[in-house]
C-alpha cells in the first residue's frame, strides 16, 4: 500500500520521536504538517526534512500548543486548506516532569496532564470529522510508563496510563466509522526528552528512525487489520 500523496499532522514533530516519524513519512511521499509550540523550531525541522535526499512529500511547519483546542482546530483547517484532506493524525507531543509527590507542584502536574492527555483529546476532537471523511488513522504515542509505574512518576504515569486507556476507548468508538486508532508505547528511546543530551552511550536504546519505520508499516497495513496497542522496547538493555 502506497502512502504517496496522503497527508499527516504530527504534533511535536520538530524533535525526537515526532521528528523521526515526520522524516519517515515524508520519505514515503506523505505531505506532512509538523507542529511545535515554537514556529521557529517547526520551520527549522521542516527545512531539515525538505533538504533530505529521501524526502518526496511536502512539509508544512505549524505553531501549535496542543493545550489550546482552537489552535489544534486551526492546524487541521490549515492542512485541509493546503492539501484538501487529512489521512493521519499523530498525537506525539508530550512533556515529562518527574519528582516525588511531596515535591511535585500543581503547575507541573497540570502541564503534564494538559499536554499528554488533554492535548490528545483536543487532537481527536479537532480532527475526527476530517479523518472520518478519509477513513483515516489517529495514532497516539504513549509509553511503557502507561503500564509500568515508578517512584517520582506520579504525573507522567497518570498521563500515560490515561492516554493508553483513552486511546483504546476511542478505538472502540471510531472503528465502525472506518477510523483506525492505535497507540505505540515505547520504552527507552534515544531522544532529548527531559533535557537528556543524546550521545554514543544511547546506542542500545530505540532510535527515532525505528519508531518512524514502525509507523510507516502501521499505516501501510491493510485496513482490515488493526494493531491497537503496540509495546516496543530495546532488545538488549544494559545489565543491571
Describe the structure in your own words.
With 240 residues, the chain is an alpha/beta fold. The protein has a single domain, classed as NAD(P)-binding Rossmann-like Domain (Rossmann fold, 3-Layer(aba) Sandwich), CATH 3.40.50.720. 42% of the residues lie in helices and 15% in strands. It is built from 6 helices and 7 strands. It has helices at residues 16-27, 39-50, 69-83, 106-134, 154-174, 208-220; strands spanning 7-11, 31-36, 59-63, 88-91, 137-141, 180-186, 229-232. It has a 7-stranded parallel beta sheet with strand order 3-2-1-4-5-6-7, sandwiched between helices. Strand 5 (137-141), helix 5 (154-174) and strand 6 (180-186) form a beta-alpha-beta unit. Helix 1 (16-27) packs across helix 6 (208-220) and helix 3 runs parallel beside helix 4 (106-134). It is globular and about 50 Å long. The model has no long low-confidence stretch (mean pLDDT 95). Residues 6-193 form the Ketoreductase domain. This is NADP-dependent 3-hydroxy acid dehydrogenase YdfG. It comes from Cyclobacterium xiamenense. It holds the Pfam family adh_short. InterPro entries: KR_dom (IPR057326), NAD(P)-bd_dom_sf (IPR036291), Sc_DH/Rdtase_CS (IPR020904), SDR (IPR050259), SDR_fam (IPR002347).
Amino acid at each position: 500500500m502506497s502512502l504517496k500523496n496522503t497527508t499527516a499532522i504530527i504534533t511535536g514533530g520538530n524533535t525526537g520521536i515526532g521528528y523521526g516519524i515526520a522524516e519517515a513519512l515524508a520519505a514515503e511521499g506523505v505531505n506532512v504538517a509538523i507542529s511545535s509550540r515554537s514556529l521557529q523550531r517547526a520551520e527549522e525541522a521542516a527545512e531539515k526534512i525538505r533538504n533530505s535526499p529521501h524526502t518526496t512529500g511536502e512539509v508544512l511547519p505549524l505553531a501549535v500548543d496542543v493545550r489550546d483546542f482552537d489552535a489544534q482546530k486551526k492546524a487541521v483547517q490549515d492542512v485541509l486548506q493546503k492539501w484538501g484532506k487529512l489521512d493521519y493524525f499523530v498525537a506525539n507531543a508530550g512533556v515529562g516532569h518527574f519528582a516525588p509527590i511531596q515535591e511535585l507542584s500543581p503547575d507541573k502536574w497540570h502541564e503534564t496532564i494538559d499536554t499528554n492527555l488533554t492535548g490528545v483529546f483536543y487532537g481527536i476532537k479537532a480532527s475526527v470529522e476530517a479523518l472520518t471523511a478519509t477513513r483515516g488513522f489517529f495514532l497516539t504515542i504513549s509509553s511503557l510508563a502507561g503500564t509500568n509505574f515508578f517512584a517520582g512518576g506520579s504525573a507522567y504515569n497518570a498521563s500515560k496510563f490515561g492516554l493508553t486507556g483513552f486511546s483504546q476507548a476511542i478505538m472502540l468508538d471510531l472503528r465502525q466509522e472506518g477510523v483506525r486508532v492505535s497507540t505505540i508505547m515505547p520504552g527507552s528511546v534515544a531522544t532529548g526528552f527531559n533535557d537528556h543530551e543524546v550521545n554514543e552511550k544511547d546506542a542500545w536504546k530505540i532510535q527515532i528512525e525505528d519508531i518512524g519505520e514502525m509507523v510507516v508499516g502501521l499505516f501501510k497495513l491493510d485496513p482490515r487489520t488493526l494493531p491497537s496497542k503496540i509495546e516496543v522496547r530495546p532488545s538488549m538493555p544494559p545489565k543491571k
